[in-house]
Amino acid sequence: MRKGNATRERILDIAEAGVLAKGFGATSIDEIIAEAGITKSGFFYHFHDKNELARGLLARHRGRLGQLVDEIFGRAAELSDDPLQQLLIGLTLFAEHMAAMPGGHPGCLVATMSYQDQLFNREVRAMVSSIVEDWNGFFRTMIEKIVAAYPLREPVDPGRIARNITCAIDGGIIMSKSLGDPSVLPEQMLMARNYVKMLFQPAALHAVPREALAA
Amino acid sequence: MRKGNATRERILDIAEAGVLAKGFGATSIDEIIAEAGITKSGFFYHFHDKNELARGLLARHRGRLGQLVDEIFGRAAELSDDPLQQLLIGLTLFAEHMAAMPGGHPGCLVATMSYQDQLFNREVRAMVSSIVEDWNGFFRTMIEKIVAAYPLREPVDPGRIARNITCAIDGGIIMSKSLGDPSVLPEQMLMARNYVKMLFQPAALHAVPREALAA
DNA sequence: CCGAGAACTGCACCGGCGGTACGGTTTTCT
DNA sequence: AGAAAACCGTACCGCCGGTGCAGTTCTCGG
């Protein structure tokens, strides 16, 4: 019973490393069980198929990442009472966290699986989209608080802004991977941050009219 | 000879539909040849392995999309001489084009393959990243022209802005797919547009100080 | 209209993969 | 001590990407 959970976790650890390094499809069960030192029967005792493995990975990932986000934005809330500052600080800390990862961030399970959705059944797909919706909802809540406190420079729907942050993260991950340059993700997280900042910060305080520059 | 090219194109057509619908890994050669009405030997006569099929798909995709982008931004250049306006108009037209596609945009081969890179060899991966770099370069050129003509509201590197546009497109595609909502892509393309607009447009002309709103 | 090369067909085969089936064994907790 | 959990061993299945090679049909330039 306790040993069962330990084995399950070990399978998930090995699988997660493989999926992040090579993708879900390229991480074979044979390879997982070889590294875990178990047999195929043992694997299928814990996960009745590969979809269940995917769900297990996603569930664990959601929990861990949720905890990280809680810590980061909790810290941001300690540093400022202002909702706009909280989001800006949180995004900066988040970007720094990603930049600080040795050898670059590991890549995101959700992003990885979004693009291999054809490998999975409905349950897994539903799980992926619900996680994406969670992210959008998280940022949306923050942005709605900001909207209540700040004038918007442009008439933009809070949901769109939230999705833009999530998109910047997903797009940053995918581009980091495509270009082999881990710095793109934190860079684009900061771009999203800057976007929010510009949308809400009283622009007149910072903008310099063209004529003034020419002079 | 001519017939050979026709078959090759038919294979690519069928494969492309499959890849966009189900992903590259899930599109089997058996299934392609069944639909094309040829044998396995026939397939491998045209493509010596699946990587070459991927390269064929990417090459065709790059050509077609390049043509579309040329048309769209050519039209934008007709509509305005101003580099900023050209980019803004081009992005709007691009977003409208994506929104107008029946049943939503088909998804992007490059984005799809970026996340299945473990399935491919170095050549294909190099091709994917070179296409992404093309996109970044394209937007970067446009943005550098804008930078030469407009004051920047925030000190942001043109490369970062270019990558942000590409990220918005990739992220938009991936989120559209995850959520099953094709409207996210055009929406996020317009968000990227709005970002550029805010970065360059003389802010003081539009921004309303908070006190003025309260009054 | 003929010949050469392009464009295939047909068939047999390989190893890796996800997955099934099922009986037997060890480990763990109560 | 006994029941349930946690495996092991083995044999098997169909799909998949891919190979090899001999034979056939089509197409087009000369």
UniProtKB/TrEMBL annotation, chains A, B:
<dbReference type="InterPro" id="IPR009057">
    <property type="entry name" value="Homeodomain-like_sf"/>
</dbReference>
<feature type="domain" description="HTH tetR-type">
    <location>
        <begin position="5"/>
        <end position="65"/>
    </location>
</feature>
<dbReference type="InterPro" id="IPR001647">
    <property type="entry name" value="HTH_TetR"/>
</dbReference>
<dbReference type="InterPro" id="IPR011075">
    <property type="entry name" value="TetR_C"/>
</dbReference>
<dbReference type="InterPro" id="IPR036271">
    <property type="entry name" value="Tet_transcr_reg_TetR-rel_C_sf"/>
</dbReference>
<keyword id="KW-0805">Transcription regulation</keyword>
<dbReference type="GO" id="GO:0003677">
    <property type="term" value="F:DNA binding"/>
</dbReference>
<keyword id="KW-0804">Transcription</keyword>
<feature type="DNA-binding region" description="H-T-H motif">
    <location>
        <begin position="28"/>
        <end position="47"/>
    </location>
</feature>
<keyword id="KW-0238">DNA-binding</keyword>
<dbReference type="Pfam" id="PF00440">
    <property type="entry name" value="TetR_N"/>
</dbReference>
<protein>
    <submittedName>
        <fullName>TetR family transcriptional regulator</fullName>
    </submittedName>
</protein>
<dbReference type="Pfam" id="PF16925">
    <property type="entry name" value="TetR_C_13"/>
</dbReference>
